[in-house]
Amino acid sequence: MSMNSFGHLFRVTTWGESHGPALGATVDGCPPGVPVEAEALQYWLDKRKPGQNKFTTQRREPDQVEILSGVFEGVSTGTPIQLMIRNTDQRSKDYGDISEKFRPGHADITYWQKYGIRDYRGGGRSSARETAARVAAGGVAREALKQLVPGLTITGYMVQMGPHGIDRDRFDWDEIEQNPFWTPDAQAAADWAAYLDGLRKTGDSVGAVIEVTVRGMPAGLGAPIYGKLDTDLAAAMMSINAVKGVEIGEGMNAACLTGSDNADEIRMGPEGPIYSSNHAGGILGGISTGQDVVVRFSVKPTSSILTTRKTITKSGEETEIITKGRHDPCVGIRAVPVAEAMAACVLLDHVLLHRGQIGANRGQIG
Amino acid sequence: MSMNSFGHLFRVTTWGESHGPALGATVDGCPPGVPVEAEALQYWLDKRKPGQNKFTTQRREPDQVEILSGVFEGVSTGTPIQLMIRNTDQRSKDYGDISEKFRPGHADITYWQKYGIRDYRGGGRSSARETAARVAAGGVAREALKQLVPGLTITGYMVQMGPHGIDRDRFDWDEIEQNPFWTPDAQAAADWAAYLDGLRKTGDSVGAVIEVTVRGMPAGLGAPIYGKLDTDLAAAMMSINAVKGVEIGEGMNAACLTGSDNADEIRMGPEGPIYSSNHAGGILGGISTGQDVVVRFSVKPTSSILTTRKTITKSGEETEIITKGRHDPCVGIRAVPVAEAMAACVLLDHVLLHRGQIGANRGQIG
Amino acid sequence: MSMNSFGHLFRVTTWGESHGPALGATVDGCPPGVPVEAEALQYWLDKRKPGQNKFTTQRREPDQVEILSGVFEGVSTGTPIQLMIRNTDQRSKDYGDISEKFRPGHADITYWQKYGIRDYRGGGRSSARETAARVAAGGVAREALKQLVPGLTITGYMVQMGPHGIDRDRFDWDEIEQNPFWTPDAQAAADWAAYLDGLRKTGDSVGAVIEVTVRGMPAGLGAPIYGKLDTDLAAAMMSINAVKGVEIGEGMNAACLTGSDNADEIRMGPEGPIYSSNHAGGILGGISTGQDVVVRFSVKPTSSILTTRKTITKSGEETEIITKGRHDPCVGIRAVPVAEAMAACVLLDHVLLHRGQIGANRGQIG
Amino acid sequence: MSMNSFGHLFRVTTWGESHGPALGATVDGCPPGVPVEAEALQYWLDKRKPGQNKFTTQRREPDQVEILSGVFEGVSTGTPIQLMIRNTDQRSKDYGDISEKFRPGHADITYWQKYGIRDYRGGGRSSARETAARVAAGGVAREALKQLVPGLTITGYMVQMGPHGIDRDRFDWDEIEQNPFWTPDAQAAADWAAYLDGLRKTGDSVGAVIEVTVRGMPAGLGAPIYGKLDTDLAAAMMSINAVKGVEIGEGMNAACLTGSDNADEIRMGPEGPIYSSNHAGGILGGISTGQDVVVRFSVKPTSSILTTRKTITKSGEETEIITKGRHDPCVGIRAVPVAEAMAACVLLDHVLLHRGQIGANRGQIG
Question: How far, CA to CA in Å, does B324 sit from each of A267, B94, B314, B317?
Fold first, then answer.
């Protein structure tokens, strides 16, 4: 019921604002005996960290995670793990001039209307900084998954920036770590760099599409009807700031297909069913088939831009605004590690739920 | 935690299979004093009911809802409302010949793997029949919304069938109830009828895109981070059978926009902020702006088709299958009232959550 | 969040009023493959059924349970199990004369104040009839426990009626099924029969204390802090109508003990730790020790009595009331099977939660 | 579902161990605009703090609370409030000699069996230190209640120490703050001081009974069946370390009463119903009557005593143990502020739930 929690058995509650003393994640339900070290979590946080190259915001935060509880002698105890990240580079004065104006496309107006609180220092709870806490929690989930489902890997990457998509024929898993956009298409990386440079000069921003593929999936994770694996993945991704659409497998394009095109044919492999294609994105009826799980989502362009936009003030006067300060021309870039983290949390949760209700898969084939 | 429930304060648990004695919804958390009559709920069920025209499955069920609890002298008592729909036309023998084979694109294989139960009579819990329970529950939510947010309307309609989208310039709210596809574009309705006739003859099926627009929205509904209004809407829609993608406002297309294109400018209207456009789909930071909320989703084509497809049996032998029996060439049609019902449940839930935590919006503008 | 549900992974939502068409339980999260037959559930319902002897209400209901979903070919499918019990003997006219007056000690006044609904036909949702649904759900839990924890038994019995407690030296497990009070003390049964006859003649009622002992407990069930096994047992028992106190092990008497008296000493048995005593009631730090779990609760006397009591009417006038109709001189008797059912639900839930988070106990002794 | 959370809309998750770097509470669902200052919370923490007089443990911790999020310019923002308390006085070496032995009556054996983790430095998550986090969270709840239910007061006090109860005829509200036991009976305070001195000298400990009375209660809070106000209060109290029994109103003694004794008669007062007595403890059918809510619970004696007790080691060898270090001869004393805090959390939660589902009470009397 908690509005700031996600997950059922593996349950993460994030807290903190961009300009308060700290933010973090309270991680409940982690199995005991899982190695949890700050350094390992830091690896993932560093991926998300801003200011690493010219394509992400110049806000510089060490984003150093501290483990305050739930870990003893390097392993989880089974009790809540508190992960805290201090805010250090707050420079709130940059935002001071917009304390009375609402930013078009930004949540400051709805937060004000609902809560009657105007934290003029920054995005408060709606800031992308909140996602650092998710990445830390996702790091814990990854470690637990390593023990419970060896061989499972979760890989996020960018497949579209603005109107420019990748060419799937150039898809190269090894390329993903080689460019600042985490894209599997080297040519796209080169093109996007030029495109983004242009955008950055005009002070504008652009959206993106991120895809996460989970390989080494076991069959049987998920459940009808509201505990579907795809439902939880969709909710997890939609809960990330600026996400406006979520797809599983064929996604929106499934509308265009006929039943004969869409139905992945089934053959018998050496270890169980194999499929001729993966339109389903690895999930049927809310339950994993054992194929790769493929989830995709769009990230809207940030509203913090240097273009003058019409808006109003708290007192209702019409005015204009330009958002100065540090900006991400394509916030979608930093959504990649966040999406991986959310996928890790959802998968671990479903592994635990499955074990809880079922123990192990009950139906044999062959 | 319940895998078959959705909602926080207004909480619906659906139960039942397509070939058992009955199915239904246990509706908890309805405010007291809401008119709940079987006839009013029946109106919505009749919209979803199959067999109404040649474009939906010929399975004929009266889908008569019975109210077993939670209502006294025609109004809700504030205690759980049990809504039951008897299954009457089960004709399970039609499906008997596929009891050993898995249907490509169908959940029977994942259900078998996970649960070790093979209900050869039909789709069991993954059947579209489960959505009748949602529609009944949504009828209750609508009545409560009438009292709490007078003027709010929820309208679902089809905007794409297969590759054929509507022309937004022909959008006519009044047309929606005039054609079997609940589409606002009369020309599209005519085109789709011909297209679907062709598909039906070949025994094939096709996907669709449905859109739901909520008009008369109050500002302030929703919450960060995992209780976002868009998160809950996305989860609600993704939980519907056969849905593969969900979008809010610009949806996946948000990736293509620049920040200056995407940010809806704000002006001051007589009763509060008004917006120059609605790329956001009425939600910023997870909280409603007061604009129309726009949610859209794709429905994949049904896997029950007359085309021969390769598959395997429970014992692991490779074989082929043709699914005889009654089919929906475009199951997306019947998803329209289901989506409206889910939207109604989510909105009522957020109205109650908002009242619970906040009382009434605290921030004034102007 | 649902106000009418209990349990985490094994989750039961009860619904229905004493004078509506039916009541029941929606049981979600049952493992698949558990034998669930109406006859087996009926055995437990018949234990709770009123009108079986002169010491319980003369309302005669067959209390026949129907399984509407979640079971296929006699075993659970892993999807929601709907258990419905029709109300047949409603005779609501007996209660008609009290439709304007509130009964002292009865929930009709608080229901009216909160909900503004006055179901003058009977206790509505606060009626003891609601507990029939719990007993049915508990029957499902028992079957699942049989598979998961063979050897575990749950036995409820009465240890006090009014001021008259049992003599623990006469405790005989085999006696429990031999008398109408489910008490392990044959002498107490005889004494109480005479005592209750006297009370019945004066139209008065009396309270009782029920104890439930779980034998064959595994160690390791439960969790800190709010998911403690004792917390969930206490909540489960306190949620039963008319319960005013709950105890684990020494219960309220723990206040009187010194630390040296209270701490159960530990020795090593052939299969693990054994204890010299069981002051703890089988639970330490919210987690089971493997000893018998002992929970105890008091049931207040029913407020439906033939003594004239002062009260007020809905319009606020002072008046008097005598509750005619059918009464239970000691409703505590019928709480025995209800308490067993609640204990079964809590234990199964914790077995599933334990398996979900931990798999199997991780710490070895010896 | 989270095992370390409590509450529905006002939801508190505590985290942290006695010997880690910090512990705290993540408080979600607090209404916005509530004054939350560290100093105000500190007032309640100082009440619970050990080492204040010779009757509580000599562990000295400043127990200084830091507010890390959810508060802006001194008021709650409506987003999660993170309350952190650093552990400073850990002196873990005191406990080193018992790292291999289990303490009779202590949770170290069940934690080991379940989690396979042995935090030899102290009680870990089962330590009474965890309750500091609850007290901090309760301080937030109190501030919110001040706004929402002015006039409501929550007062905890000790009514029994070991076998020695208070004399209700000497009950004096003003006395409660005047003695180290928070007892309303000055004579009992004097007697207990002498009694406890004796116990302390022998290195033994003793149990206690605490009572919490809520005055100024509104009618209508709570809900059937599993969201009963008394169910939630019982669960809240039973979740406190060392609690073994919980009572509402007459509690276990309700068993001894007849229906004519137990039913509180109703008269009409100037502002609504008034009652001749309060056997019910202010709750009927799970919903508050408007009378004082009275909840009572027992605290077992701490297992950390200087008496030699038989036990076993991790490797299963039989041995003996004496627990040296700092001890509370009567831990019940420090449970008083904890119980008040839990009551505050439960009440605020039910105020929000009530407002969410109902808005305001719907039934008028008179």
Answer: 21, 7, 19, 21
Distance CA B172, CA B184 (A): 5
Contact D278, D217 (CB under 8 A): no
User: Among B98-102, B122-126, D105-109, D264-268, which stretch is predicted with the lowest mean pLDDT?
Assistant: B122-126
Mutate: best of A115, A120, A226, A348, partner D, most D CBs <10 A: A115
Q: Are C298 and D163 within 8 A, CB to CB?
A: no
**Rounded Cα gap, residues A234 and A236, in angstroms:** 5
User: Cβ contact (<8 Å) for B28 and C4?
Assistant: yes
Reported ipTM: the value is 0.95
DSSP alpha helices (H): ranges in chain B?
38-48, 108-115, 130-148, 186-202, 229-238, 259-262, 332-357
Taking CB atoms and an 8 Å limit, are A235 and B230 in contact across chains? no
Chain D contact present for A90, CB below 8 A? no
Q: Which of C19, C22, C241 is nearest to C120 (CA)?
A: C19
> Are the C-beta atoms of residues C74 and C56 closer than 8 Å to each other?
no
pLDDT for the residue numbered B181: 95
Cα of A13 vs its chain's centroid, Å: 15
The CA distance from A269 to A266, in Å, is 9
Q: Are A281 and A273 in contact (CB under 8 A)?
A: no
Cross-chain residue pair C357–A352, CB shorter than 8 Å: yes
Q: Quick one: how many helices (H) and strands (E) in chain A?
A: 7, 18
Main-chain dihedrals φ then ψ at residue A79, nearest 5 degrees:
-105, 170
Write out the two tokens for B324.
Answer: 């005889």
Which B residues 20-39 touch D at CB under 8 Å? 29, 31-33
Question: D352–B357: do the CB atoms touch at under 8 Å?
Answer: yes
Distance CA D49, CA D64 (A): 10
Inter-axis angle of helices D332-357 and D229-238, to 10 degrees? 150
- Closest to C358 (Cβ–Cβ): which among A32, A224, A358? A32
User: Could you read off the pLDDT of C27-56 as tens digits, one per residue?
Assistant: 999 999 999 999 999 999 998 776 666 776
User: pLDDT for B276-320, tens place per residue?
Assistant: 999 999 999 999 999 999 999 999 998 877 889 999 999 999 999
Q: Does the bond joining C225 to the residue before it have cis omega, within 30 degrees of 0?
A: yes
DSSP-derived letter for residue B71 is E
Residue with tokens 């895109």, as numbered in its chain:
B209
Q: Does B208 touch chain A (CB under 8 A)?
A: yes
What is residue B155's three-state secondary structure?
strand
